[in-house]
Amino acid sequence: MTKLIKIISAPLISLIFLLNMSSAVMADTTVSAEVGFIFNTLLFLICGFLVMFMAAGFAMLESGMVTSKSVSVICAKNIGLFSIAGIMFWLVGYNLAYGIDPGGYIGKFIPWADGSKIDTGYSDGSDWYFQMVFCATTVSIVSGTMAERIKLWPFFTFAAILSGIIYPIVMGWQWGGGWLAEAGFSDFAGSTLVHSTGGAAALAGAMIIGPRLGRFTKSGAPAPLKPFAASSIPLVTIGVFILWLGWFGFNGGSQLALGTATDAIAVSKIFINTFLAGAGGVMGAAVITRLHFGKTDVVQMLNGCIGGLVAVTAEPLLPSPFAAILIGAVGGLIVVYGTKLLFSLKIDDVVGAIPAHLFAGIWGTLIVPATNSGANFSTQLIGVLSVNIFVFVVAYIVFSLIKATIGLRLSKEGETKGTDVTETGVIAYAIRD
Fold first, then answer.
1. If phi over 0 gives left and psi between -120 and 50 gives alpha, with beta otherwise, what is residue 25?
2. Strand ranges (DSSP E) for 43-198?
3. Is 109 exposed, middle or buried (0-12, 13-18, 19+ CB in 10 A)?
4. Radius of gyration of the chain measured on its C-alpha atoms
5. What is the pTM of this model?
6. Of residues 421 and 224, more confidently modeled
7. How far apart are CA 197 and CA 392, in angstroms?
8. What is d(CA 35, CA 325) in angstroms, rounded to the nearest whole number?
9. CA distances from 269 to 47, 276, 288, 310 (A)
10. What is the pLDDT of residues 295-329, one digit of tens each?
11. How far apart are the C-alpha atoms of 40 and 31, rounded to whole Å?
12. Are 94 and 131 in contact (CB under 8 A)?
């Protein structure tokens, strides 16, 4: 009898225990300060890993978009700029952004040092790492735009200035508690602070260095595709998929906390909206190229994905899923027509970074008040104008100085042979007779 009671009662006791545990979990959405510290730190590190993996996506995308004679240099540029950005962000960048006085404009030119305390909610090292990979992403945007005619070491020089000084200053205006934060500007994960910053710098560089030889005809139309054909569309596609994956870290990690159920739900919503905005960008570009140009342009679809992701980055938490699709779809349309605009201006953007990051970033930042009642259009416009004008002007000056001193562009002979031959001496794709 006793044995029978035990058999019957054991499952009941287990069920009651589980129900009690479930109620406790549902009722208690907070943890101790130390456990919250651990979860928040883990969020930064895991999402930072995802954002770092975006570097592989950028390398693949750019390698696939350039011609086959310039692939090795793209690889050198991408691993080099990531290394430079990390060193410069440790040396001066982090404290230029976070060492700023409330409502101020610039921080302190001192190296980062770890001062972690449980009271801050996360380890300083995890925050440095997470913010560093954002910085490196900004520099990656410039790389592809100026491909196939810029010298390697002048680009590295600009990468050091962008990652060590220009980006940290504008980052500090908002995320460091500077004057834009005081004004009420809203940019959740960096549509303007990261993507428009990289796009504005890329635009300045493209205007200074000029288009590739023979890229445009005298009438202004792009030259026939064949001499400038992408080396590998499959590589571009894989690169975009990697970027899309990395974007979950980019946006999800910007919740900055995972110590409560509310934060976990928020990160999940951000993941959904991030995915849907990217999908909206893909299909927006697919539909419009089919309707307007008669063919479905896969390159525009791929860049449309990036444009959609950039657009939702300014506010990935508050839009409904349907709104996220629409925001992303408009980002995709902006990429298509932004590319057409650059062609008309004879601005040569090899990978389409300016429409995808600068133009779509502006759109995403300005549409924030539509879903975030705490933001207003005038403040968003002030933030967009101030960041983009500042970055463009400073980048234009820096590129001009580099051009006037150590030189910026390859010689005509070097450009004709290809940057792989002239800059690295390493040929990516062997030519077989």
1. alpha
2. none
3. middle
4. 24
5. 0.91
6. 421
7. 8
8. 36
9. 15, 11, 28, 17
10. 999 999 999 999 999 999 999 999 999 999 999 99
11. 11
12. yes
* Length of the chain as a residue count: 433
CA angle 382, 371, 390 (to 5 degrees): 20
Tokens of 204: 């300045």
The widest CA-to-CA distance across the chain, in whole angstroms, is 99
Give the tokens for residue 293.
């140009």
Residue 92's nearest CA partner among 10, 171, 200 is 171
pLDDT digits (tens, 9 = 90+) for 121-137: 999 999 999 999 999 99
The tokens for 78 are 């991408």
pLDDT in tens, 408-418: 999 999 899 98
Q: What percentage of the chain exceeds 70 in pLDDT? A: 91
As a whole number of angstroms, the distance between CA 267 and CA 175 comes to: 19
List the domain boundaries for the chain: 31-240+254-424
Percentage of the chain with pLDDT > 90? Answer: 83
Homologous superfamily (CATH) of 31-240+254-424 is Ammonium transporter AmtB like domains (1.10.3430.10)
